[in-house]
Amino acid sequence: MPLSYMMTRLKSKGLVAIDWSDYFLRIVVLRKKNQGYELIAADSAELEHGMIENGQIVDFAEVAESLLGLLKRNKIKHKQAAFVINGANVISKRLRFDEGLTEAQIHDEIVIDFNKHVSYPPEETFYDFEVQKKEENTNSSKQEVLFIAAHKDQIGQYEQLAKICRLHLEIIDIDNYVLQRFVEIFYPEEKQDCWALICLNFKRFKLHILDENQIYLSEQKTISAGLSEAEYLNALNAWLMRNMQMFEVSNRGKKPQKIVLYGDRVEIDNIIASFKDMMQLDVMVLDPFAHLGNPQAAANITHKASYLLTIALATRPEVN
Fold this sequence. Notes:
- InterPro entries: FtsA/MreB, PilM.
- 28% of the residues lie in helices and 31% in strands.
- It is built from eight helices and 15 strands.
- It has helices spanning 60-73, 103-112, 114-117, 152-164, 175-186, 229-250, 271-279, 308-314; strands spanning 16-20, 24-33, 36-46, 52-53, 56-57, 80-85, 91-98, 125-131, 142-151, 168-174, 194-200, 204-211, 214-222, 258-262, 283-285.
- The radius of gyration is 20 Å and the shape is globular.
């Protein structure tokens, strides 16, 4: 059951990116123009508590109604949908094969040794792969392949929501690679730096550390939704310090050069000052609309930092 909506097989020019947290549903439509992107639409809807729990849709009818309302309000006619999946729910491995193998032969090799890569059978798995570009000055006779897989239970909610809303599910992207692409597209001169991207939502923290545009650390923590701002910051600081120390120890003292905050709950008072005191580094709340070709189109959008994944998802490259 190859997962054709993963990797780089987008064929449609019109795409609506759809993303959610436990309390908010977001959509973004971008248009490729020259060397950048222009904003066509971006909007969000607040969700009733319990409609989504830990990223999983509980009430499909209500979430679908909210999504259809966003599409109607923004006059979006696109039927091709893109979703983003938590990297914790995906198996990702780099495999090596003889350089002369075609993609069809690589697929056959993966299937033959499937149980070496995934603990559940192929018929219960969505999977895909992508041959990676070979680095310059490499004499290896092997080609590197990025292999990803997810159990069908992790994919079902996207298929069901798309079906209810009469959308064509074209892409499911992985948050790790979505963030990589965002940095590569919008910060090309700084993509070799070490970035710590921290997502702050009401019920979850997420941390991705990218170094030279490679993922070195991906961690998350679920928290109580009822924490006060002070309790939230205390829990966040303790968790973040532990993960930063772990990264530093395992990478010979390397520290992130950039601390970037995004998500639904970045607007807590004194959050930047708290991070600066703890990390002794510059910290910024990211505005993902700032590098679009028409940032003025986002002037009336609130909670801009919560749209990072949605905007990055909407930059999915097309296949000619």
